Amino acid sequence: MILPIYLYGQPVLRKPTEDLEQGSLDVKQLVADMHETLTAAEGCGLAAPQIGKSIRLFVVDGSELGEEYPDCVDFKQAFINPEIIDESDETATYSEGCLSLPGISENVVRPRTITIRYQDTDFNWHEETFTDFKARIVQHEYDHLEAHVFTDRISPIRRQFVKSKLTNIAKGKTVSKYKYKH
Q1: Which residues on neighbouring strands pair with residue 111, listed in sequence order?
Q2: Is 141 noted as a catalytic residue in this protein?
Q3: Domain of 52?
Q4: CA–CA separation, 39 vs 120, rounded Å?
Q5: Pick the catalytic residue: 42, 67, 83, 141?
Q6: What is the pLDDT of residues 17-65, one digit of tens each?
Q7: CB proximity list for 155: less than 8 A, separation 6 or greater
Q8: CATH number at residue 153
Q9: Contact between residue 148 and residue 47 where contact means Cβ atoms under 8 Å apart
Q10: Which of 12, 121, 139, 167 is the most interior residue, by most CB within 10 Å?
């Protein structure tokens, strides 16, 4: 089922998330719905707050980016109760956008490599290290679980430039090709 994506201004995007407890909901169905929503919106990541749920869960699907980023071809998974446990000092800058902030993209500096500990949909623990674009996707979605959006990470001067766009999104003055809630 395709779910509406919550846009900037929705309080859930600024609310800290809670750990997802095994058995508290049908996590496999929720992950399937999130992947379907992500595909319909043509994104590469979607966090639970973006569908109105304050839980520590996000999904990624980098398959559409495979031509430009070959390591992302098979990068489709869910991260439950994740925690970034290490990050490199080396950084990379890349232009990011977000399904919750349609029409806005800005350069964001992030660690080039991260190590994350998380659970899968069977609630088994994993620890993985990601580099480059995979690391960026994971960090962007992880930020949503920490009640942040990517514009929190841009320079104050750039934030001033996008302030009116953010205000318009929050006021419902935006158009998107995917199902959304403002």
Answers
A1: 91
A2: yes
A3: 5-181
A4: 20
A5: 141
A6: 999 999 999 999 999 999 999 999 999 999 999 999 999 999 999 988 8
A7: none
A8: 3.90.45.10
A9: no
A10: 139
